[in-house]
Amino acid sequence: MNWLPTNGALHGVALDHLLAWNLAVIVGLCIAAHVLIVAAFLFRRARKSESPVASRTRANLRPHLLFEFVILIALTALYLGMDITGHKLWAAIREQPGSAQPIQVEVTGVQFQWYFRYPGPDAIYGATKPGLVSAPTGNPLGLDPADPHSADDIVSAILILPAGQPVNITLRSQDVIHGFFVPGMRLKQDAIPGMDGDLQFTPTTPGDYVILCSQVCGLGHSRMQAGLRVVPQAEFEKWLAAREQSILNTNAARGAQ
Amino acid sequence: MTTPPLTQRPRRLFTTNHNTLAKNYLLLALIAVITGTLLSLLMRLHRTWPDLAFPIHGIIRPEDYLALVTMHGTLMVFFVLTVVPQSAFPNLVLAAQIGSDRMAFPRLNAAAFWITALSLLTLLAAFFVPEGAPISGWTSYPPLSALAAAGPGQATGMDLWLIAITLFCLAAVLSSINFLATIAVCRAQGLTWTRLPLTVWSWLVSSGLTVIAFSALFIAAALLLADRHFGTSFFLPAGMVINGIPQALGSKAWGTGSPMLWLHLFWFFGHPEVYITILPGMGLASSILANFTRRPVPAYRMMIIATLLIGVLGLGVWGHHMFVSGMNPYAGTAFGLTTIAISVPSSAEVLTWLVMLFRGRMQLTTPMLFTLGFLSFFIAGGLTGPILAQPALDAYLHNTFFIVAHFHLVMAMAGVFSIFAGIYYWYPLLTGRRMNELLGKIHFWISLVAAYGTFFPMHLSGLAGEPRHYAQLAGPVESFTRLIPVERGITWSAFLLAAAQLIFLFNLFWSARRGTPASPNPWRATTLEWSPLPHPTVTSRPYEYGPAAGQSGDFHPQWEPEKPF
Ligand code: HEM
Ligand SMILES: [Cu+2]
Ligand SMILES: [Cu+2]
Question: Is the pLDDT of residue B59 over 70?
Fold first, then answer.
């Protein structure tokens, strides 16, 4: 299992565990089937000839069919078991109760960049307008200054999150479908234009993780990468406060003009 | 054989003769598979040595890579894996296997071939238009596929792709209607439903699926063309901004659609399509295993039921391609369950084949070897299915190379090996000669090893988090460095795999002239495509192999009247 990148998310532990035993089971089954094929292949001449009368009649088939039936039942049970354990984990990931107040972040995919927006102290994302989108002038998401909620929104090109806090992500796309994929957080969901995606997870281990795009989105698809930095709670608050301050400063400077 | 070998018959261009059409389809698929393979080798070269410059073209740009993937996937899925098992083979043997010398609708059948040919030409033309071929992958998700501004190749190239697909859908539906009618009305006297070879049952189910699934894709492609050119917005929401330019702000009614509609329509086609490509191969595997172990198919009726179940359940699993699309998580659970359900009849078929290996005496002819290869790939690729059917696990593996490994084993390699089995097996019907067995066996062993060498390690890349559709290796740093040698190995294997096919090509053309002349029933088979009589009356089940008291020989062909015990 050390093929997987290091896991840094709460649900990732259970996911890696589930994946590991699932892989072990199917590798086992695959080997078993191939042992049968190879055995049939190697010992094909050694078989004693069946009695001519019996060979084309049904009675002779019974032991084979019984064997087949038993294995089929066992496989069905196994598949169901896999499905049920898989469903439990899925439910745990997708129906996470918002016990602690989760951190809110909006993730927007744009050809070929990820943007991260924190709603600021008012905890509400300001309105955006397609007509206002302008990356060169520093408004890549098209924040509408007329909306008071947008004044304190922080837009970042890197995703910074505190360790140990649940995060709620609102997933958006400005143009085509992108795939928000954080291998180290065992996290993936498509950002579909016109829809608000919804994702929960809890990063646990501080460190740097890569964010990729997993849905082909145009010529820059493979370089559409961003960083996720998981930091201790205190550091996160410091960073957030600093960003907030600098936004207030810019706004104040704009207002003074 | 009901008809004389093709080489002895004058070939008319616009023939309605299904045997000639089969040959035409095979040639068409050969063009597609050679092109598709060359494209995949370019992709592998670029992924492994990104700075390699090619004569004339120069370096492969990221958009070139995406165009290569798109065209490779489209050629392979539609023009190879659908055309051969679902068009060429039924034209070659379906009528004969039901004791008929004609199809129900020969003109419709011929028209389908020409539409398919036109479709292929349209698709290949996309390479030669300004900006080149489309880059949105064989699934062509909008808005990338809907807006010309979204990327190079998404203007004329994408239009050609959509027209090609529309034509292909039309042809597939037409030819399937012919097959369905042929099976329904052209069966020989005495050929009841429980005396049909399993290949015929497979074609019955896969043709039914084709009519349903390709109609859905036909509609989806037509609607997407309308979005592109007639100002509709079936798949387009409001508020999109491409390159800083807001899309269609002017019209109020525009922008009420959703890309999700395309995902649903596409996968409502896409999943049944997987079974359309593989069901004929499953039927053929049963027939060949019976033929070369000289024993009947056990649980023949259960195999029919399993085939029907796969067909029916196959229409209800499409959502497993959309677990991470933002679809309702409960829908994910439901589609996971239907997917588990369909793995039961699939497993039943595999178990029957495994049982068959232990009965009678195995004869290792080339078609038999390729069938064993099919079985191996179907198992190795199929077993990852129950993993990918779990939304939680798929959420990590989706759109990584793990998926590429999964479908290249279970669909591409199983499909291609079963195509090879069919060609080696039915070659005498095409040419009156047999293909060279020694070359066939060399072809098999190299292909088997190289195919595993190419596609098995892709599981590891996928586990490491390497996404598909990436022009260059990327991903989490630690897992990424471990992948470089793996990726090299994949590329070398891919070249070996492609090179092994030269042996096949040589054998294919050489044997047509120089192969050993085949006797009328060279494999001592029981099914009617080998019948010397044109209109047999059938009194027996399809796979009467094995010694029986009071009979000479170890098989009872369906065209011979049953001798009393
Ligand atoms: C020499 C044999 C083959 C090699 C080396 C090969 C290699 C590849 C590679 C490198 C990709 C691109 C993966 C990515 O970057 O996303 C790919 C995609 C694909 N291949 Fe193959 N392939 C081969 C044969 C086949 C066959 C026989 C089929 C028939 C089903 C097939 C179907 C596909 C499909 C459907 C895709 C996905 C295309 C897309 O995402 O648009 N391949 N293949
Ligand atoms: Cu992308
Ligand atoms: Cu599917």
Answer: yes
Residue B500 lies in a domain: yes
Please spell the DSSP secondary structure of B381-426, one letter per residue: HHTTHHHHTSHHHHHHHTTBHHHHHHHIIIIIIHHHHHHHHHHHHH
- Residue B545, domain member (yes or no): no
Question: How far off is chain B from A172, nearest CA to CA, in Å?
Answer: 11
Atom of ligand 1 nearest to the CA of B33: 27
B542 domain-assigned: no
A91 Cβ contact partners less than 8 Å away, ≥ 6 residues apart? B329, B333
Kindly list the distances between the CA atom of residue B123 and the CA atoms of B38, B160, B161, B412, in Å, as whole numbers in the listed order.
Answer: 16, 6, 5, 20
Please report the pLDDT score of residue B472 as a whole number: 87
Q: Do B547 and A52 lie within an 8 Å CB cutoff?
A: yes
Residue nearest to atom 40 of ligand 1 (CA): B137
Residues that place a CB less than 5 A from ion ligand 3: B 271
- What's the whole-number mean pLDDT along residues A9-21? 95
Residue B4 has pLDDT above 60, yes or no: no
- pLDDT tier for residue A95 given thresholds of 50, 70 and 90: confident
Distance from CA of B310 to the nearest CA of A (A): 15
pLDDT of B533 > 90? The answer is no
What pTM does this model have? 0.94
Q: Which residue from B255, B332, B352 is facing A68, i.e. has the nearest CB?
A: B352
pLDDT, residue A12, reads 95
One DSSP character per residue, A166-203 reads: -EEEEEEESSS-EEEEEGGGTEEEEE-TT--EEEEE-B
Cβ–Cβ of A176/B357 closer than 8 Å?
no
The interface predicted TM-score (ipTM) is 0.93
| Helix ranges, B255-299 (H) | 259-293
Contact with chain A for residue B239, Cβ under 8 A: yes
CB pair distance less than 8 Å for B352 and A93: no
Q: How buried is residue B16: exposed, middle or buried, by Cβ count under 10 Å (0-12/13-18/19+)?
A: middle
Task: State how far residue B96 is from chain A, nearest Cα, in angstroms.
Answer: 25
In total, how many domains does chain B have? 1
- Tell me the per-residue pLDDT of B184-232, one tens digit each, with 9 for 90 and over: 999 999 999 999 999 999 999 999 999 999 999 999 999 999 999 998 9
Do B283 and B223 form a contact (C-beta atoms < 8 A)?
no
**What is the percent of chain A with per-residue pLDDT over 70, rounded to a whole number?**
90
CA distance B460 to B442: 28
Amino acid at B125: A
Three-class secondary structure of residue B305 per DSSP: helix
Domain with residue B161: its CATH number is 1.20.210.10
Residue bearing the CA closest to ligand 1, atom 38: B73
Would you say residue B536 lies in a domain?
no
Pick the closest to residue B104 from B177, B170, B4, B171 (CA basis): B177
Max Cα–Cα distance, chain B, nearest Å: 85
Which residues have a Cβ under 8 Å from the Cβ of B488 and sit 6 or more positions away? B48
Report CB contact under 8 Å: A4, B465.
yes
Q: Which residue of B408, B456, B468 sits with most ligand 1 atoms within 8 Å of its CB, as the best mutation to test the pocket?
A: B408
Torsion of CA B315, B321, B322, B325, to 10 degrees: -160
* Banded pLDDT at A249 (limits 50, 70, 90): confident
Partner-chain residue, chosen from B357, B361, B471, that has the shortest CB–CB distance to A36? B357
CA of A92 to the centre of ligand 1 (A): 34
CA distance B490 to A54: 49
B408 Cβ inside 6 Å of ligand 1: yes
C-alpha B396/C-alpha B75 separation (Å) is 28
Q: Is the pLDDT of residue A40 over 80?
A: yes
The parent domain of residue B269 ranges over 16-237+253-530
Q: Are A161 and A95 in contact (CB under 8 A)?
A: no
Q: What is the pLDDT of residue B384?
A: 96
